[in-house]
């Protein structure tokens, strides 16, 4: 399995996202620092679209040395596991989608395959060159000869093989456990989906039964049906109660009300049509009977032909239409006469109100003029006061004479004095300007 250093990951991230090499490496360091903090605190870190890192603690376990037969204890440790996200899993497994899963039996040796791939990796791996800065200065140490006994080498090799086999067994067990977990999840999903479908079918059947129970009319039951109903009630008491949705009840009630309203409207219109038809038939009978009294009896006429019957029917229709038009015209004329009478009444009332207002205005003007006639200048003047024309505010430095000259003309201050009852004014005072009317000359 190939391993990537921080520089390699930073270069890949920089090429992908457009960042610089330094920024990419800082981001990767920060991400792994945050992951380590989360693992220390919660023992689990989940990264969206990447996967879940989880710390699992392994207990101490005993093992036996194959050569000496001695027991030794392998200390417990924390094992870091990674479960990829579904999106990452699909991306990684996409090139191998055409492969089929093959179950491998226990005891299969993978040493030859591992050695083969190990040799290929060593051939492809670049040679690492290590530069020593102080190579010239430092003296080359004399090589020490280390004698290793063949037995110790064998023990080390056997221990390595045991460790490799144990690692393989653990990988196989983990793969089997993962496969079992996936199968259990699939079975659980299938079971939940089946339960959901059954629940939907049950709800649909209950709604259909409720709809049938509401729409179907009740039928009087005989003795046999009563016994069947009792049996059904006993069965239904043992089963669950059916709940009818509220919107279904409301919809059925609206349909019933609409049907009843439609039947009532049809019956009402049908009654009116029948009454109108009877009335027209009675008018036709009266019309035929009226000339029959004046005309003497004639011998029985021969049976009418089809053309004569059509002519007679057309004549009757025209007479009926003429009478209807005449009745409508009379009704319109009566409406126009009533409207004209109403307009005449309104005009008369308006004229009376205007005359009354004029009389009141004249009386008020006479009373007002009689009040202001106490002043000799107003009494002997050419005008009389009939009301107030407007109200003005006295400005700074203005006199009553100036105000009267501005609004009425020169020599008219006597009328302003008589209306306001004063001959002196102050700034800011409200002054009424009189409304004058020329006195009529006496003949």
Automatic annotation (TrEMBL):
GO terms for molecular function: DNA binding; structural constituent of chromatin. Residues 340-356 have a biased composition (Basic and acidic residues). It comes from the Bacteria. Residues 213-240, 330-356 are annotated as: Disordered. Keywords: DNA-binding, Membrane, Transmembrane, Transmembrane helix. Residues 223-236 have a biased composition (Acidic residues). Pfam families: Bac_DNA_binding. The chain crosses the membrane at residues 247-268. InterPro entries: Hist_DNA-bd, IHF-like_DNA-bd_dom_sf. GO terms for cellular component: cytosol. SMART domains: BHL (SM00411). Belongs to the bacterial histone-like protein family. This is HU family DNA-binding protein.
């Amino acid at each position: 399995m190939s391993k990537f250093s921080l520089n390699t990951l930073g270069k890949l991230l920089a090429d992908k996202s457009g960042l610089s090499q330094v920024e990419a490496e800082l981001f990767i360091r920060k991400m792994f620092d945050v992951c380590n903090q989360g693992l220390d605190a919660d023992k689990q870190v989940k990264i969206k679209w990447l996967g879940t890192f989880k710390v699992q603690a392994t207990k101490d376990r005993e093992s036996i040395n194959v050569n000496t037969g001695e027991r030794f204890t392998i200390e417990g440790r924390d094992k870091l596991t990674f479960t990829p996200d579904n999106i990452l899993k699909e991306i990684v497994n996409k090139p191998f989608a055409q492969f089929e899963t093959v179950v491998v039996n226990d005891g299969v040796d993978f040493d030859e395959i591992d050695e083969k791939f190990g040799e290929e990796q060593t051939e492809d791996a670049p040679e690492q060159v290590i530069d020593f800065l102080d190579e010239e200065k430092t003296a080359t140490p004399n090589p020490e000869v280390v004698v290793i006994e063949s037995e110790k080498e064998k023990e080390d090799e056997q221990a390595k093989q045991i460790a490799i086999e144990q690692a393989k067994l653990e990988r196989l067990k983990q793969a089997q456990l993962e496969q079992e977990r996936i199968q259990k999840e699939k079975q659980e999903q299938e079971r939940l989906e089946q339960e959901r479908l059954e629940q939907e079918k049950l709800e649909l059947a209950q709604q259909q039964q409720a709809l049938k129970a509401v729409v179907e009319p009740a039928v009087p039951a005989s003795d046999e049906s009563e016994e069947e109903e009792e049996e059904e009630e006993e069965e239904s008491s043992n089963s669950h109660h059916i709940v009818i949705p509220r919107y279904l009840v409301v919809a059925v009630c609206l349909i019933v009300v609409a049907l009843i309203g439609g039947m009532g409207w049809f019956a009402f219109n049908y009654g009116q049509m029948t009454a109108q038809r009877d009335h027209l038939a009675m008018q036709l009978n009266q019309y035929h009977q009226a000339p029959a009294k004046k005309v003497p009896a004639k011998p029985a006429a021969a049976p009418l032909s089809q053309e004569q019957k059509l002519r007679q029917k057309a004549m009757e229709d025209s007479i009926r239409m003429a009478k209807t038009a005449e009745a409508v015209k009379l009704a319109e004329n009566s409406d126009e006469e009533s409207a004209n009478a109403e307009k005449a009444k309104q005009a008369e009332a308006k004229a009376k109100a205007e005359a009354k207002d004029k009389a009141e205005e004249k009386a008020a003007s006479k009373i007002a003029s009689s009040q202001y006639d106490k002043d000799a200048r107003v009494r002997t003047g050419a005008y009389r006061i009939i009301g107030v024309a407007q109200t003005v505010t006295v400005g700074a430095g203005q006199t009553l004479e100036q105000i009267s000259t501005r609004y009425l003309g020169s020599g008219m201050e006597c009328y302003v004095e008589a209306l306001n009852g004063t001959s002196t004014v102050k700034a800011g005072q409200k002054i009424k300007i009189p409304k004058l009317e020329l006195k009529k000359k006496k003949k």
